[in-house]
Amino acid sequence: MKPKAVKADIASKLVDKFNEFEKELNGHSKSPMHTVRKNALEELKSNGLPGPKDEEYKYTNLVKSIEKHIDLDNVSNDSSLSDSEVESFLFDNEDANIIVFINGLYAARHSKIISPVSDLVVLDFEEAFMQHPEEVIAHFGNYAAKYKDPYASVNTAFSKNGAFIKVSPGKVIEKPIMIHFISDTRQGIPVYYPRNLFIIGERSEVNIVESFHTFGDQPSLVNQVTEIVVSKEAKGSYYKLQLESDNAQRVDNTQIHQRKDSVFNTYTLTFGGAMVRNNLNIALEDPHCETHMYGLYLIKGNAHVDNHTVVDHIMPESFSNEIYKGILDDKATGVFNGKIFVRQDAQKTNAFQSNKNILLTDDAKMNSKPQLEIWADDVKCSHGCTTGQLDDEQMFYLRSRGISAESARAILLHAFAADVLETVKFEFIREHLDRIIHERLH
Amino acid sequence: MLTIKNLHAQIEDNQILRGINLEVKPGEVHAIMGPNGSGKSTLASVLAGREDYEVTDGEVIFEGKDLLDLAPEERAREGVFLAFQYPVEIPGVSSTNFLKTAVNQIREHKGLDPLDAVSFLKLIKEKMKLVEIDQSLLSRSLNEGFSGGEKKRNEIFQMAVLDPKLAILDETDSGLDIDALRIVANGVNQLKRADNAVIVVTHYQRLLDYIIPDFVHVLYQGRIVKSGDKSLALELEDKGYDWIKDEVGSLV
Ligand SMILES: Nc1ncnc2c1ncn2[C@@H]1O[C@H](COP(=O)(O)OP(=O)(O)O)[C@@H](O)[C@H]1O
Ligand SMILES: [Mg+2]
After folding, report:
1. Residue to substitute from A392, A396, A409, A413, interface B, most B β-carbons within 10 A
2. Tell me, what's the ipTM?
3. Which residues 370-429 in chain A show a CB within 8 A of chain B?
4. Domains contained in chain A, number
5. A399 vs B98: CB contact, 8 Å cut-off?
6. What backbone phi and psi angles, to 5 degrees, belong to A123?
7. Which DSSP category does B111 fall into?
8. CB-based contact (8 Å) between A442 and chain B?
């Protein structure tokens, strides 16, 4: 599907910005990586950015939001974050591999990889291209050509830094990898383009946790792309903890390729941001893949959070399970669009999808749309979406036992989110989430 | 302890309670009987503070306070407990965590320190014995997938833990077999003291063989149309409700 785009101002501005970006690259503008960037820029030039008439961006007018809040001629990625300010965003668990980016730039000082290099390679994307050019370019180029979200093209055009993770075949990485992206908005309005590539080797196992924070009250714009290759018989999980401020603009594209007998879990957990668009695409490219997609958005104020997911069953006998839950307060708006494709060869597919939402006010809104496209005949697919309020009977029951209305509400909402939270494997992440949710609900 | 005067309540323009008067003193057991639809659960709900009902007239004084002014949780903290006729299932909420929150919010209201995990567990264990409730039931989500009898037993268990001044049992006997009925009644009797009171709502007298009421009231068409001692319950058992209806009919 080719997006019917409006030639927005912002797209041509980005083209100008690209020329500046290119100059800063100096000698590197001849590299194969840059060819990919230039191709992506051409796509941006010819397609523009999606406007409100675009089916995929019908409920999420990102262009308008960016135009309103971000002056691309007045961007500053300078940061004055002190060490202790950075530390304040890190989790309590220090027993992890840690990698930190500040306004998109790799912060070596705060990063620490404790797993042996024979098992795990973690590098800044730019450095990874120097050290492993073939491997990076194989995926990088491949990806840009395949994937059509206009914002992903923008990211590709401007890609330079991000997390590169490579797990050696057969290795189980016990310690989670924590990636922190911190926006410091005190010096100006940061705009950056994280580019991640995770290559999870055959029979290996890894857990990656990304978290996003903001410092200061000014807006920021982060356009991120993450590509993940889950090789044969590999296992893994990938968490996104979106904790940005209510002035943050975010567009996030994640593309996952799963190979035979692999098992992968994704968590998209949104607690902050003014405007957040998450595109999660999972291609089950071989038989016997298993994938679980969990989402939770707990939003308030004027936040707008849009989750577009695609799970593509290409070969037989794979299993996909998607559970997205939303709690929307104040004037928050949620969008969920879940596509399940079952290709002709994908017989005996088992696909499950559910999206449930609770609106806490009359002003909160939710647009939820499942989209199933099935070309195979022997498949099991089910989906359901509901949007409602807190149950009065349950509220009354709890209150009649002496529990305050506020606590009762928190208890019920916590229970509502439980199907997602209970699947979180790491105790320290679960505790962290419980804390966030507790704060948010009280 | 509880004084209800001329209580009128309606839901969606249906007048359900049409002038209830009732006085409950510490140490007493009152039974409220009456045919289906007469307003028994409505009365219980209004006392517990369900917001669907609109009180259009009358007053309810509990321990010197205007009960109708209080939010449901405030009533509970003051010592009112309703054992629901149909306890709602709450998936994802652990029975024990829920009770701990309730116990500690009630304690906070009374100016007491919260119970720590050990003391809370001790309390729970003790009360579990009283109503012969199984640990496995409490490790599940609140009322989720419980049988009718298990739900009722869980209500009485919660009552035992929260130790109210005034307990209102709404048809706690329905759906119980004779053994469960005996256990529940036994639990209620053991909790009975000189300084608390119970209102037993039922439309069978069966439960009253075990929980002996001091007073029996018949509720019909939103009014208490007859009051007496426990022999009234036996009379109702014997003759059904028709004679009451006839009596009321002849009055109007
Ligand atoms: N939500 C409601 N809307 C309208 N009428 C109701 C509602 N709930 C109860 N009623 C009516 O109120 C009357 C009393 O009901 P209830 O108090 O449950 O009686 P009881 O417990 O004595 O069987 C019945 O006629 C019933 O139909
Ligand atoms: Mg009833």
Report:
1. A396
2. 0.96
3. 391-394, 396-405, 407-408, 411-412, 414-416, 418-419
4. 2
5. no
6. -140, 160
7. T
8. no
At residue A280, what is the residue type?
Answer: L
Which segments of chain A have a pLDDT < 50? 1-8
Dihedral in degrees, nearest 10, Cα atoms A292, A297, A298, A301: 180
- Which residues have CB under 8 Å from A261's CB, separation 6+? A232, A233, A286, A287, A288, A289
**b (16+ CB within 10 A) / e for A154-182:** bbbbbbbbbbbbbbbeebebebbbbbbbb
Query: Taking 70 as the threshold, does the pLDDT of residue B250 lie above it?
Result: no
Look up tokens 């060490």; give the residue.
A83
Q: Cα distance from A401 to chain B (closest Cα, Å)?
A: 6
Instruction: Say if residue B196's pLDDT is above 50.
Output: yes
A286 part of a folded domain: yes
All residues at 6 or more sequence positions from A333 whose CB lies less than 8 Å from its CB, including other chains: A59, A303, A304, A305, A364, A365, A366, A367
Q: At CA A371, angle to CA A369 and CA A375, rounded to 5?
A: 175
Determine if ligand 1 sits within 6 Å of the CB of residue B51.
no
A400 & A314 share domain: no
In a domain, A166, yes or no: yes
Provide the token pair at A140.
Answer: 């990088």
User: What CATH code is carried by the domain that includes residue B243?
Assistant: 3.40.50.300
Tokens standing for residue A255: 């593309």
Same domain for A327 and A394, yes or no, is no
Number of domains making up chain B: 1
Note whether A268 and A241 are within 8 A (CB).
Answer: no
Last residue of a domain, one of A346, A361, A389: A389
Decide which of A389, A407, A430 is a domain's last residue.
Answer: A389
> Has residue A59 been placed in a domain?
no
**Which residues line ion ligand 2, judged by CB < 5 Å?**
B 40-41, 85
pLDDT at residue A267, as a whole number:
98
Instruction: Return the residue matching tokens 């992903």.
Output: A152
Helix axes of A133-146 and A32-47: crossing angle, nearest 10 degrees: 10
Q: Which ligand is nearest to the CA of B36?
A: 1
Task: Identify which of A224, A76, A58, A233 has the alpha carbon closest to the alpha carbon of residue A152.
Answer: A224
Read off the tokens for A134.
């073939």
Closest CA to A208 of A115, A127, A289: A115
Specify whether the CB–CB gap between A397 and B84 falls below 8 A.
yes
Q: What local confidence, expressed as pLDDT, does residue A33 receive?
A: 87
3-class DSSP state for residue A145? helix
Residues A358 and A419 in one domain: no
Torsion of CA A16, A18, A19, A22, to 10 degrees: 170
Say yes or no for a CB contact (<8 Å) between A396 and B91: no
Residue of A nearest to B162 (CA): A401
Within 13 Å, how many C-alpha atoms sit on residue B235's CB side? 13
Measured in Å, residue B80 CA sits from the centre of ligand 1 at 22
Lowest-confidence segment of A287-291, B120-124, B171-175 by average pLDDT: B171-175
pLDDT band at B160 (very low <50, low <70, confident <90, very high): very high
Backbone phi, then psi, for B53, in 5-degree steps? Answer: -95, 140
